[in-house]
Input
Amino acid sequence: MSDATQDAPAHPGTTQTGKTAWTKFLTATEIDTRLIGMVAALLIIWTGFHLYGVIVNDFGAFLTPRNLWNLSVQTSSIGIMACGMVLVIITRHIDLSVGSILGFCAIIMGTVQVNILPQFLGLGHPAIWIITVLVGIAMGACIGAFQGALIAYGAIPAFIVTLGGLLVWRGSAFLVARGETISPVDETFSLLGGGPYGAIGATGSWIVGLIACAAVVLLVLNGRRQRTKFRFPQHPVWADTFIAVVGCAVAIGAVLLVNSYPWPRGIVRRYTQAEGIEIPEGGLFISHGFAIPVLILLAVGIVMTVLLRRTRFGRYVFAIGGNPEAAALAGINTQWMTVKIFAIMGGLAGLSAVVASARLNSATNALGTLDELYVIAAAVIGGTSLAGGVGTVFGAILGALVMQSLQSGMVLIGFDAGMQQVVVGSVLVLAVFLDILYRRNSK
Amino acid sequence: MAKNQGTPLVDLRNISISFGGVQAVDDVSIDLYPGEVVGLLGHNGAGKSTLIKILAGAYRMDSGEIWINGEKADIKTPADARDYNIETIYQTLALADNLDAAANLFLGRELTTRLGLVDDATMESETRKIMARLNPNFQKFSVPVSALSGGQRQSVAIARAVYFDAKIVIMDEPTAALGVHETEMVAEIIKELKAQGLGIFLISHDTREMMALCDRVSVMKNGALVGTERVEDVTEDDILSMIILGKNPKREAA
Ligand SMILES: Nc1ncnc2c1ncn2[C@@H]1O[C@H](COP(=O)(O)OP(=O)(O)OP(=O)(O)O)[C@@H](O)[C@H]1O
Ligand SMILES: [Mg+2]
Output
């Protein structure tokens, strides 16, 4: 092995060149096998449901722009919360109350925008949606901070505090709304939930896609520059090129996908009438483009990734997860960190409530029921270790996509609710088991 | 050599702490001068770690006073101790296993870029520099410290104490996990720090090593101080009998 003089740990025992090439590929690109596993699982789920449709119903409904677009919107609400759950689980805590916080925040926001603000500002005032969103996020953050304080300063286990919260906030949502559904929400607010008008169209999507491509390339180049500057071992050019190409391909592929899903005819007709446009021969093709909730998820994912990997706060989150005592001895105020982490989790549940209630165009006290399980499952499937200290935001978002794919796929092929619960529950346990096996082998 | 005149760097006065019914440290007074190594000896559970953890801010004493450079110090948290330039190598090493050497070395004191983001590249580069000095064989910079050997972990913990401009260094059994060669290296580091005028509290069970490295040794038993002696005034046997019998033979004789 004369060419194996790279920095990668050598595997003297491996004689099969195939295996060496694969390991070399993984080391050079710094792709971890878990990510590959998740992408593979996703592809299997997607093609599985599609083929099932093709064979049983003579129509594969899964791999269509329409379904995948809807999937992206459905993933948003869970995905946003999963980003926060990563922090919570990394620090060896758990938050069982997120679904209930979501429901409570949705009810509060519904009351604010439907019953309170219009009295003072008038119906449809442009500030209504902004105030509502801020109230929702602030409410979630306060609830989270309160629970975090009980956990940190009261030394009550997170499991108990948030189990209590699960009931308290769900019950409070019921009390505030007296069990009624609050609707319709403010018109601008409802755009935050997606739908034809709540998407940014073809041109906007191209802009987002190209910015994403530029960002990927810049990140790769910056990485190379840093390694040169500090004389760290450089990645091979082919590996960095590979990462850049795959990143750009995913971005452009996503744009092509969301742009190939047109507005339904009825909406096009209403739109053209309102705008006074003639519908040309053969119909008018207006693309949805990226839905706004998806962009919100994207923004949350980026912000949370930077927070976790590039700030002191994020470093302390990992340190506390790895060894709470060492973190405290290093001068980190671990109790205050816990309050902040739960506040972020609560704030994200509030944001998620925005997306979920905007999508429904109404707020009910049942909104977000069982979401905590999906959110925790998403984080765990995405590689966040329940033992603490390990996890990525990106993985959690992928995990949310996996969970939502399962869920929507089963609805699509007509599994009944009982069967869906059986599958989701089993997948969660299986995912944790695979995680344990994975960690055992990588030791 | 002038015998410790002037203000001591650290002056621990009448320190006591108890956990539940256990009087872990019982009215202990010890001082430390610049450029001096003071050793703490005693049986397991004698209260050595507890005493220095009070100085390090990890525990709060029930009663007593800490004076640093002639001023009364108020050390309530590890962060307070750092503000007094006290660095500690804990017996348990206190490393976050899931983070790499650089992240552990700078934990709580991360270097940041102009944007306020953690500057991992600079921190790794600094870590490489200090490790090249302390442990030239150390190469595992990009793996979590859980993947390091006991000795390698020890060198990360030592690097943390040495890197920042400490005036007072506390080493709780720094050589417990080390081989002969690495132990020698730690001895060199201690001598170097001493030469730079730092004050060092050293805890170890190896009496011979303590006789070689320390200027004075203090012996504790059951939380109380048995005595403090200059190493040139006592023999290894004197020390051993202080540890075992809890009595100071020299004082007895006098
Ligand atoms: N956090 C704690 N809670 C309760 N008891 C404690 C605590 N820390 C120490 N102790 C008790 O205080 C006494 C002194 O312990 P300490 O760790 O200071 O001993 P030591 O001299 O460092 O021993 P060793 O040589 O084994 O490290 C012991 O009886 C121990 O059980
Ligand atoms: Mg000890």
